[in-house]
Automatic annotation (TrEMBL):
<dbReference type="GO" id="GO:0071014">
    <property type="term" value="C:post-mRNA release spliceosomal complex"/>
</dbReference>
<feature type="compositionally biased region" description="Basic and acidic residues">
    <location>
        <begin position="98"/>
        <end position="109"/>
    </location>
</feature>
<feature type="compositionally biased region" description="Polar residues">
    <location>
        <begin position="170"/>
        <end position="179"/>
    </location>
</feature>
<feature type="domain" description="Cwf19-like protein C-terminal">
    <location>
        <begin position="536"/>
        <end position="638"/>
    </location>
</feature>
<dbReference type="Pfam" id="PF04676">
    <property type="entry name" value="CwfJ_C_2"/>
</dbReference>
<feature type="compositionally biased region" description="Basic and acidic residues">
    <location>
        <begin position="144"/>
        <end position="162"/>
    </location>
</feature>
<dbReference type="GO" id="GO:0000398">
    <property type="term" value="P:mRNA splicing, via spliceosome"/>
</dbReference>
<feature type="region of interest" description="Disordered">
    <location>
        <begin position="1"/>
        <end position="240"/>
    </location>
</feature>
<feature type="compositionally biased region" description="Basic and acidic residues">
    <location>
        <begin position="319"/>
        <end position="328"/>
    </location>
</feature>
<dbReference type="InterPro" id="IPR036265">
    <property type="entry name" value="HIT-like_sf"/>
</dbReference>
<dbReference type="Pfam" id="PF04677">
    <property type="entry name" value="CwfJ_C_1"/>
</dbReference>
<dbReference type="InterPro" id="IPR006767">
    <property type="entry name" value="Cwf19-like_C_dom-2"/>
</dbReference>
<feature type="region of interest" description="Disordered">
    <location>
        <begin position="611"/>
        <end position="630"/>
    </location>
</feature>
<comment type="similarity">
    <text>Belongs to the CWF19 family.</text>
</comment>
<feature type="compositionally biased region" description="Polar residues">
    <location>
        <begin position="220"/>
        <end position="238"/>
    </location>
</feature>
<feature type="compositionally biased region" description="Basic and acidic residues">
    <location>
        <begin position="182"/>
        <end position="210"/>
    </location>
</feature>
<dbReference type="InterPro" id="IPR006768">
    <property type="entry name" value="Cwf19-like_C_dom-1"/>
</dbReference>
């Protein structure tokens, strides 16, 4: 019987969600035993709780190794078959190429023979024709001198049976015959004029074909006196606050929802009228391009492209300019920064239009195969590392278009964003709405009862990109959920997983309640799992403690950066947890946190994995929200916002 299918005494199967965690623990048991010189059974009994569980882990490792060996054998057989088929295809290709080359050679020889035969025949016909012309001239002169009519007639009869090819050759060579009508002066002048006209037309076509095309991306700057748009009577921040109040009132069924919606529409009309008001004089069109850092859900900054002379494509190797004088002092810069003056650099930095310095430095270091992380190397190779490749306007335009399309696709397909300026709610069930963050329910089957999500209203790839106001709302939701579940004898685990920033996926914080006893063991489980995650050798510290109470730590927002993928878990408090920098997205599972929690709660993987379930229909969202609010309503901190807004509207 296969051990993978047999039931285990510890209520788990070989290769389930907790298998990787058990194998990591078994590996550390062997390492500890080797370091301390203690038998593995003693360490295994201590770590696993009993010698039976330790032996089960050994049996599971043996079974997994057997499966891996069987998979590798199958892969080897498939690889051999693939190599054999590839060799057969190569041999067939060589045979086919040889056959085609032989056929081409035979055709070439055949055409050469036919051409030579045709030339020989043409030469013989020309010689025969010349001989006949000579005889005709001689005969006519002799006839005039006294030949008899019989001889003349006999000679003419002998000359009549000419071959068809001879007649054709005669007509075809008539143009080259020396006995042609001489060309008069008018015909010669007409042909010369026609030839000159054709040459002029050809020169015009050449000029049209190679004339540089003016760049359509030159920025036209209009006069500052006429380029200013009248300021609207309400700011965008005030408009956003009015819209947030209207959405929250509509969701909660407050009586002033219609009034707030009307106030928002009036404010929007006011801004539209101010923007659409015609200027005193017509403005010139300014062509701009999206540039700057890759967007994380919001549009990138825009500015005009540099005016170009046309087709700026250069042929050959670019000329290398000197950057230092004889004394070693810098006199010029290479690349794009050499064309920028100080004001342009300052403008780009102020508006956030410059490149991301961290990503640019990392990109240049990866191109340097002999890079060394020390000050001497950085000083000696500063120019090499800082050298950039100058991009053309066409490349900048294509990059901006691609970034805009990618961002727009991510926003259109996002199930957690408000669409159509807040008129269309997210596809997920919304429980409570703050000003910048809301509490929702999962789109798929809950991991455990009470599973919910803290979602930023803005489309961001990580919560590290949010401002202090949004983070305060996240902490308020965390504190209220901790108090609500503590009253039910449960512990709260909060996790955020950002695997790949290029996906531009809307980030969420998953809030999962687990039994209180399991919550006490959670820190040890997560610490062990994070230390075993990713590769054995990594550039970053595997386990990053984010305790905000420690002076040397600074908490989650100071210890991690939004420019790198990461995983973070909060263990029962918004100020304490563990972080991990994800270096290889392929090696890190999107279900990492749930795998660890499944091991703690001894759950089967088929009970919670999303791939084994379908998305919950939107028709069930009202019922789910109502069931969740039975426990959540006494702890809902957003009610104070609603009461304050209701008081303000009543005072008006």
């Amino acid at each position: 019987m296969d051990t993978a299918d047999s039931p285990q005494s510890s209520n788990h199967t070989f290769g389930d969600a907790g298998s990787s965690w058990r194998m990591a623990k078994l590996k550390r048991v062997k390492e500890t035993a080797a370091e301390e010189g203690v038998p593995e059974e003693v360490i295994g009994e201590e770590r696993f709780g009993s010698i039976e569980k330790y032996k089960e882990a050994l049996a599971e490792k043996k079974e997994l190794d057997r499966r891996m060996s069987r998979k590798s054998d199958r892969r080897s057989d498939k690889r051999d078959d693939r190599d054999s088929r590839r060799d057969d295809r190569r041999r067939d290709d060589h045979k086919r190429k040889d056959r085609d080359e032989r056929d081409r050679r035979d055709d070439r020889d055949k055409r050469h023979k036919e051409s030579r035969h045709h030339d020989d025949k043409h030469r013989r016909d020309r010689e025969d024709r010349d001989d006949r012309d000579k005889r005709r001239n001689t005969g006519s002169s002799s006839s005039r001198d006294g030949d008899s009519p019989y001889e003349s007639t006999h000679r003419d009869r002998d000359e009549k049976p000419r071959s068809k090819s001879g007649r054709l050759s005669e007509f075809s060579s008539a143009a080259s015959s020396p006995f042609q009508r001489p060309m008069d002066e008018q015909e010669r002048q007409a042909k010369e004029l026609a030839r000159r006209a054709k040459e002029k037309e050809r020169e015009k076509e050449q000029e049209k074909r190679y004339t540089p095309i003016p760049s359509p991306f030159a920025t036209h700057v209009s006069s500052p006196a006429h380029s200013q748009t009248p300021e609207p009577t309400i700011t965008p921040a005030q408009l956003n606050k009015v819209k947030a109040k209207a959405i929250r009132a509509k969701m909660m069924g407050l009586p002033d929802a219609d009034a707030l919606e009307k106030e928002y529409e009036d404010a929007q009309k006011t801004i539209a009228e101010a923007v659409s008001r015609p200027p005193p004089e017509p403005q010139r069109v300014v062509v701009v391009q999206t540039m700057g850092r890759p967007s994380s859900g919001s549009a990138s900054p825009v500015y005009g492209l540099r005016p170009g002379p046309g087709n700026s494509k250069q042929h050959g190797k670019p000329k290398k300019e000197a950057t230092h004088d004889e004394q070693g002092n810098r006199v010029a810069y290479q690349g794009e920064e050499g064309d920028l003056d100080l004001q342009e650099m300052l403008r780009r930095e102020k508006m956030g239009l410059g490149e991301d310095m961290d990503q640019e430095l990392a990109r240049r270091i990866t191109r340097d195969t002999v890079f060394k992380d020390d000050n001497d190397y950085m000083d000696d190779n500063a120019d090499k590392i800082a050298r950039t490749v100058k991009k053309t306007d066409e490349q900048l335009k294509n990059a901006a278009i691609f970034d805009h399309r990618k961002t727009q696709t991510a926003l259109d397909n996002c199930a957690m964003c408000f669409k159509d300026e807040g008129r269309v709610q997210p596809q997920m069930a919304v429980v409570s709405m703050g000003n910048r963050v809301y509490l929702g329910l999962p789109l798929y089957k809950e991991f455990l009862p009470g599973h919910c999500l803290i979602v930023p209203a803005q489309h961001v790839t990580s919560t590290l990109e949010l401002d202090d106001d949004a983070w305060d709302e996240i902490r308020n939701f965390m504190k209220c959920l901790i108090q609500m579940n503590a009253a039910q004898d449960k512990a709260m685990i909060f996790t955020e997983t950002v695997i790949n920033l290029k996906w531009q996926k809307h980030t969420v914080i998953e809030c999962i309640p687990i039994p209180w006893e399991a919550g006490r063991a959670a820190p040890g489980y997560f610490k062990e799992a994070i230390l075993s995650a990713d590769e054995e050798w990594s550039q970053h510290k595997k386990l990053i403690e984010t305790d905000a109470k420690l002076a040397s730590n600074g908490g989650f927002r100071r210890r991690l950066t939004p420019k790198m993928p990461f995983f973070h878990v909060w263990l029962g408090s918004p100020d304490k947890g563990y972080g991990h920098v994800i270096e290889d997205a392929d090696q890190f599972s999107d279900y990492f946190a749930k795998e660890v929690l499944a091991s703690i709660c001894e759950m089967d993987s088929t009970q919670w994995q999303r791939r084994n379930g379908k998305r919950i229909p939107a028709s069930e969202n009202p019922r789910r929200v109502k069931d969740f609010q039975k426990s959540w309503k006494p702890w809902d901190w957003t009610q104070s916002l609603e009461e304050a807004e209701a008081g303000n509207s009543g005072g008006k």
